[in-house]
Amino acid sequence: MISMYNPVSNKILHYSANACLIPICSLYGAAVTTVEGIGSTKSRIHPVQERIAKSHGSQCGFCTPGMVMSVYTLLQNHAEPSSKQLYEALAGNLCRCTGYRPIVEGCKIFCKTKCNLGYWVHIITHPLYVLQICRKLFTAEEFQPQEATQKLTFPPELILMATDQHKRTLVFHGERMTWISPLTLKELLELKSKFPKAPLVVGNTIVGPNMKFKDACHPIIISPSRIFDLSAVIFSKTGLTLGAACSLSFVKAILVQAVSDLPLETTQIFLALLKQLKHLGGPQIRNIASLGGNVLSRHPSSDLNPLLAAGRCVLNVASLCGTRQILLNEDFLDASENAVLLPDEVLLSVYIPYSKKGEFVSAFRQAERRENALSLVNAGMRVAFKPDSAVIADLSIFYGGIASTTVCAKKSCQLLIGRSWNKNTLEEACQIVSEELLDLDTTPEGTSEYKRTLITSFIFKFYLQTLKQLNQMNTFILFVFYVMKQDINPDQFSYDPVGCPLMHLAGIKHATGEALYCDDIHPTEKELSLVLVTSSRAHAEIVSIDTSQALSWPGVVDVITADDVPGTNEFCYITEPESLFATEKVTCVGQIVCAVVADSAARAKRAAAKVKITYKALEPIVLTIEDAIKHTSFFSPERKLEQGNVQEGFDMADHILEGEVHIGGQEHFYMETQSMLVIPKGEDKEMDIYVSAQHPTFTQELVASVLNIPSNRIMCHVKRVGGGFGGKITKTAILAAVTAVAANKTGHAVRCILDRADDMLITGGRHPFLGRYKVGFMNDGRIVALCVKYYSNAGCTADESIANALLRMDNAYKIPNLLCQGCVCKTNLPSNTAFRGFGFPQSALVTETVITDVAIKTGLPQEEVRERNMYKAFDETHYKQEIDPGNMIRCWNECMQKSCFHKRKLEAEEFNKHNYWRKKGIAIIPLKYSVGFQPMYLNQVGFENTIVFSFLIAVYLDICYSKCLRAASMPGDICSLIASRELRIPTSYIYISETSTATVPNTRPTAASIGTDINGMAVKDACETLMKRLKPVMNKNPEGTWKDWVRVWCLLPKCTVSYKTHMDWEKGEGRPYEYFVFGAACSEVEVDCLTGDHKNIRTDIVMDVGCSINPAIDIGQIEGAFVQGLGLYTMEVLKYSPEGILKAYGPNQYKIPALCDIPEQFYVSLLSSSQNTSAIYSSKAIGEPALFLGSSVFFAIKDAIAAAREERGSPRIFTLNSPATPEHIRMACMDQFTEMVSKNKPDSGNPCATPSYCYSSGYFEKDV
């Protein structure tokens, strides 16, 4: 939080901001408050920190400080905020773990209107006493109130500085630049005259990213933020003048006040601007970004410029030669010579004229995500009518996002002046505007058919809004959450925490910023930083590597290549060998070639850009699944499973359908990027590796192999992981090995922290899939035969994702005659890797698509077809494993009942009858998820040899605490709950330490959702062993305490815990999984058929978690997985250029679900009375299964599209590829506008991919 005193208003201003965008020099005179400054466990935590922690709003914890500070800043400005203000304050934050619900729920307590808080919450236990454990999720009464002593005290010396009459121009000199902050407008104009190329920086939202990502260098930067003339606000008789340095948040506040005070007819443009400002960036961006910077950037996707241009706004500029005005019109936006600022000119203010009677202004935008996302297409439109008529007197239409600049449909507007505002004019407007804008210079991403459709769709929306003279503000819908509880055994001892919703053990430390992550470890003496140099070619031979310029760069110590590897440069994790450093050729963009080591990360990064690699291009470049099929580029073996006789099934079928569906890839987007610190110990080649990893043992083994030293010299430490989802198993080990080579060669500690762009470029993600199917079925919807072939885009190396896809493809359905095959495509993309569900979310989506097509073809309700094909009783899967679907049927029936499915379906159908351009859809999806690993040995059993799983418990004499050393990424909460029950002591006696291969060797990765099953049993076994050892002591002193009994040191041997799993792929049968998890989800959406935008109205989930050890964790996992699945199926898109270069390399281009994307009503229920004898305390794995339930939103969208297509006379059976982005939704809702664009479009191959880039899964639309 940044706080500044304004001497003009005599007020202290508080605002949140992104630290990565704030130049240190701009903070002169400001008070900066970080999460550590508002409360800590050493003193006293702040109520915001307490509420987020105790409401279970923290899982990995990496995003928690940002959430805390956003709410804290809100409370500094509004002691009792409204729910809308709370929502807006959190809107700029991202979380990949929780699904946002618990964060919002905990912070609602601060709001004026108290809302339903749900059922589950926990009270912290005192560290020395056993307290009763609360059975609710959380109770508002237990939270400490806000007190005056915890209010921020603004430093009085800063007030004196702000009111000092002798203030002077500030000048700061750095290594590469000088920062100048003048006090007066005259000084500013003199500086601009002296340094005409120097940029003016207020919010740093344009210059900052260019310096970071494009290595732009500005020797002089001028900051005019202290000049009050540039922040002036003037209301005149004709309009509003806003200073160029006004922040967008300040502009928004001024416009809200103006709308409230001025006559409605004069504020048309203000209302339209407010609509755009609501979605322009997040609050942290709007708090610092300036109006002038936004206008002068002339960004092709600017949300404000089209509207300001349509509203005839004027720019007031000045130089030492005087002042002048520039009309903000198409000439300015196109940077015409007579309408641009001269190098020595400064933008003073923007004049916005009031709207007049008979004048209507509207704004439109469509983005990949509703908020905090750049527009794909936006528009500003204004129409003025002749007095007392519907005849157009003036018309302005501007678009952003469709060309290299904001464009004006000037010719079309002139042709339409004098026409009446009616249907004929609308049709003509759509046609002539579309034709006028057809031949424009396109944006770098191209102008797709979808964008051209939005051009006409926005005109139609403007026509409707103006025709009806709509002037209604959108009502704010408060999120409603509901979590059903799990029954607790009434005979359970009060000290036994198992089954109770306990707060994350590190939750408070997450919220106070005291939780240490890898990059928080203090630098060691002479520590070095490492930056990777990666391939810029997808398929090429390395001719030469020239490191001379990099080595001569200041601060550079060395450049590490394959020649510096003392051991082997190749390794093998699954089947195919991989290289640590590329040597002779590269097979993807982002492959590691070498690494630069320097005394700082900034210097290493600059030097890395100086490494010159010469390539010789190789052919072909294979990027998509279609490319791989064309060039027969596959990994071996091809997998196959078969049951029954498929041909006989097709012969008896009443109908046969064929089709295909693409499922796009997905980036892990963990909040903490890949991070590692390697410290040579200087003796016997020992090394300490501090790493954020899910599989520390593989990291240890790989580093030992690369350095050619025994594994017992490598100590791998994992304190905590800031999100992993499968992405920190193999990839982290590779990066740690590269860093270890550098540390070994230099003899110094080396730290490597990837920035987001490099992380996304190098590490790969979820596999894109193509599923081609042929299904035979009866008139009653029973499927009698199914043949499916899956293609997985593995990237440049192989893994076992296709095996999981085939084994789990049946989801909840018994298909008597089935043939499924899997091919792994070898492409020139970074190797894709494990990701939550690992093959199942892709193959199961194909299966559900088949079910949907069958339902549409037979005319039966989709839920009826699903029920008809479900496993009904004790049965066998297609790989001959026994299954009892009882709990699956229970989940389905409970979800039907709790969601009021049939009632809401009828309501949706009624809504659709009365709304042509908006459609509702509803879908209910079952879930059967098999728990375990592929390959089998990771389940600890392979080839009939048991692999031991280790867990260490040490008992100390001082205050009698037990210390547990756990598996990586396994929640310490679960360890402590199990140990608490088995040792019969409160959790406050137990301390969970880091994972370390020095104390617990031979660990297995915490993945595939089996961390609790395997490690939990190891904890239980270790505790039982300890209790057996203590039993003689306890028998001798039955009245004693834990402290009395614990007088010996205990070092436990390894315990054997394993799944007895096996799979024979030649026979196509086995028992590859230990048990099944079941669930069901019902989702309802509303689709805007004109733009493709959709709103998630409600989701109900019923989940079989067995007997939950900690319901708070399980519910958090369900919600987080669902929202991650929602991202996979509806919004997350990885784009690559034809050269194989990733185009979505950060949060600006790649959109994960935000708070605005979660369902407005979100209900989660745990199935009661569920048992599971295969896992600890009858619990079940829950981390991965619920991700697939996000597909219920996908199929609800498809249901809404089908309703629109049926009304328009289009075929109801159609292909909807995943993710169901606004583009795919809009183009599937076929209407006169899509037809118009189709007729006018230039010839192109793929209607759903823009000319200059391809999707990694090769999307296209097709009617079966």
UniProtKB/TrEMBL annotation:
PROSITE patterns: FAD_PCMH, MOLYBDOPTERIN_EUK. Signal peptide: none annotated. [2Fe-2S] cluster 1 binds at C20. Residues 172-357 form the FAD-binding PCMH-type domain. Gene3D superfamilies: 3.10.20.30, 3.30.465.10, [2Fe-2S]-binding domain, Aldehyde oxidase/xanthine dehydrogenase, a/b hammerhead, Aldehyde oxidase/xanthine dehydrogenase, molybdopterin binding domain, CO dehydrogenase flavoprotein, C-terminal domain, Uridine Diphospho-n-acetylenolpyruvylglucosamine Reductase, domain 2. The active site is at E1184. [2Fe-2S] cluster 2 binds at C60, C63, C95, C97. GO terms for molecular function: 2 iron, 2 sulfur cluster binding; FAD binding; iron ion binding; molybdopterin cofactor binding; oxidoreductase activity. InterPro entries: 2Fe-2S-bd (IPR002888), 2Fe-2S-bd_dom_sf (IPR036884), Ald_Oxase/Xan_DH_a/b (IPR000674), Ald_Oxase/Xan_DH_a/b_sf (IPR036856), Ald_Oxase/xanthine_DH-like (IPR016208), AldOxase/xan_DH_MoCoBD1 (IPR008274), AldOxase/xan_DH_MoCoBD2 (IPR046867), AldOxase/xan_DH_Mopterin-bd_sf (IPR037165). Substrate binds at F838. Binds 1 Mo-molybdopterin (Mo-MPT) cofactor per subunit. Its cofactor is Mo-molybdopterin; [2Fe-2S] cluster; FAD. Keywords: 2Fe-2S, FAD, Flavoprotein, Iron, Iron-sulfur, Metal-binding, Molybdenum, Oxidoreductase. It comes from the Eukaryota. Pfam families: Ald_Xan_dh_C, CO_deh_flav_C, FAD_binding_5, Fer2_2, MoCoBD_1, MoCoBD_2. FAD binds at residues 200-207, 290-294, 303, 347, 365. Mo-molybdopterin binds at Q694, F725, R836, A1008. Homodimer. PANTHER family: XANTHINE DEHYDROGENASE (PTHR45444). Belongs to the xanthine dehydrogenase family. This is FAD-binding PCMH-type domain-containing protein. It comes from Phrynocephalus forsythii.
